[in-house]
Predict the 3D structure of the following.
Amino acid sequence: MEITEKAYKRCLLLKVGGRIDHETAPDLEKRFDKIFKKGQYRLVVDLSDTGYISSAGLRALVSALKKARRFNRGDVRLAGLSPRLKETFQLVGFHHIFQIFDQVVDAVGSF
Amino acid sequence: MRSIKVYAWEGYTGPGVLEEIAAFVTSVGVVWSLNEDVLFHLQMAIGEASANSWEHSYQKGKGRLRLEMERHRGVLEVRVIDWGKPFDLGETPAPRIGPDLDRVDLEGLGIFLMRKMVDEMTYRSDARSGNVLTLKKRLPVKRD
């Protein structure tokens, strides 16, 4: 799993590539916590290069969403999901809790 | 009687193993010419099952893990076998996911995903055979 960051005026874009599985999800959680500690609570997670996400990865995203929204009036928005990832997110009902955008530019612009 | 070829992977839980298993599943998928949807569903289910063995059966420690894949007429059968602590599939709660974030509870999400990705899932455990999680996935009917 590779994570890169790009700061925009109103949000931080986090691009996550590769596999988010039970081994790598803890690293993603740590990265979220590091970002929150810096006071950044508006995030866009670009999943266009993510080929696989396990239940541990899905948990990491929800955990970040809760931290961002509940305590800090922020949000975690998702973008660039492949059709198969989109299917997975719909299957588990994540479209009810996340704002999901087809294009990263739209997600960034939504803040 | 026609024999059925079983593709098997065996190793120990530890760093990099989930990715190694995913590569093995992909290679079998190529041999069987599986379509991308079926392969993705298998990857999801087998990934969760393998992670479950590592996390629950072996409490994130090192333990023997075996994966067997075979193809019958129209059905793929996968067995994920470990020799760690057994678990009860029936006791796993369903995750609670809805618009109210405070009420979201993801316990049981892995099992839920596995059930959604395959057509049949059974589990048995005994001292000799180990903990055997069997996943069955029906193949889509080819239309000419």
